[in-house]
Write a structure and sequence with these properties.
alpha/beta; Quinone Oxidoreductase, Chain A, domain 1; globular; 6-stranded parallel β-sheet
């Protein structure tokens, strides 16, 4: 089969790899129809995630058709059209029993922290991802869900991570009616977090970025106020000014490890790799939220040290909430919002790229060319 293969930082290509096979009675093999490139994939592409091995296939956002099932699989059969959450999880351990699917204890040798994630290095279990023609899906009775007949395929693939994560970011904020919510990052997750904040009762939603085309999308898709931090000497001062010098009630970090805005943090976090990424957005979040407010973190960071303003968070009495998204836990409510017309996930899709051209897709997305917000990968056109 053809698959995207990692050959080192900024080096990927499409190669022939062996077909995945049933390795456990609960496995399924999925013929991928549509995948996506996530902002988190760029952390791997740029060499920021530890233990990203040569030959690994990325891709934790994908949908497809069941090609084969193991003898113990009961809920799926060949030909089913399915969406697969990015979490690999067993469904029965201490954490899964509490809905913490992203922290599953049985699927990752490094499970003292994160559980398993498709296509996201050996730090998260070493599972090959869905930027390929076929992918092995463990615990097939637990993760994959048959796509409802009424759901558009592009909406379904965005539910496997980006939309669920943005919604989870707003959910972690414990937004109450009338709250002012600030979202750092106008990428896909930030756009969805801003849109979801309205659904949870926010009275005001502000999105901060430095790319004007993404801020325009935040205004039209998420109906948010926008600030371009590059146009201000100090974006934190601006946030204080616009919130009566109190700060926002809730701030969502939807940027993660590759935030711009501070030269030293960027060099030490993304170039020298002395931190688990550049914590600029997280520190800005701590600075711009009001005392007693909540900071929600759904931007991805590496597992090593980061220079975060924890003392300021302590002294301000902040609540910090974060995790990798337990995707399937978000689906019932998101299905309702989509079916009722409150959300149209694929409104943010800007590029649809054949698997054979995925290297160009990564370059476009990484360099922010052609007003790229969310690229989809067409693996096996249906």
């Amino acid at each position: 089969m053809k698959a995207m293969v990692y050959r080192g930082p900024y080096k990927i290509r499409v190669e022939e790899k062996p077909m995945p096979r049933i390795e456990h009675p609960n496995d399924a093999i999925i013929k991928v129809t549509t995948a996506a490139i996530c902002g988190s994939d760029l952390h791997l592409y740029h060499g920021l995630m530890p233990d990203t091995r040569i030959g690994h296939t990325f891709g934790h956002e994908f949908i497809g058709v069941v090609e084969e099932v193991g003898p113990s699989v009961q809920n799926l059969e060949r030909g089913d059209r399915v969406m697969v959450p990015f979490n690999v999880y067993c469904g029965s351990c201490y954490y899964c029993a509490r809905g913490l699917f992203s922290n599953c204890h049985n699927v990752n040798p490094n499970a003292t922290a994160v559980g398993g994630i498709y296509g996201y290095s050996h730090t998260t279990g070493g599972y090959d991802g869905g930027q390929a023609e076929f992918v092995r899906v463990p615990f097939a009775d637990v993760g994959p869900t048959i796509i409802p007949d009424w759901m558009d395929s592009e909406d379904a693939v965005l539910l496997t991570d980006a939309l669920a994560t943005g919604y989870f970011g707003a959910q972690l904020g414990d937004i109450v009616e009338g709250d002012t919510v600030v979202v750092f990052g106008a990428g896909p997750v930030g756009l969805y977090a801003a849109k979801s904040s309205w659904l949870m009762g926010a009275g005001r939603v502000i999105v901060i970025d430095h790319l004007e085309y993404r801020l325009e999308k935040a205004r039209t898709f998420a109906q948010a106020e926008t600030f371009n931090f590059a146009e201000y000497d100090d974006i934190i001062v601006e946030m204080k000014k616009t919130t009566d010098y109190l700060g926002a009630d809730v701030v969502i970090d939807a940027v993660g490890a590759e935030a711009d805005g501070n030269f030293i943090q960027q060099v030490t976090g993304t170039k020298l790799k002395l931190q688990g990424g550049s914590p600029i957005a997280l520190n800005w979040a701590i600075d711009s939220v009001r005392k007693g407010g909540t900071v929600s973190v759904v931007g991805a960071y590496g597992p090593i040290f980061s220079a975060v303003k924890f003392g300021d968070a302590l002294n301000k009495g902040l609540t910090l909430r974060m995790n990798q998204t337990p995707v399937k836990r978000q689906w019932p409510r998101l299905f309702e919002h989509i079916q009722n017309g409150y959300l149209k996930p694929n409104d943010i899709v800007t590029h649809r790229i054949p698997l054979a051209d995925i290297a160009e897709g990564y370059h476009i997305f990484s360099a922010k060319l052609d007003n790229c917000i969310k690229p989809l990968i067409i693996a096996n056109p249906s």
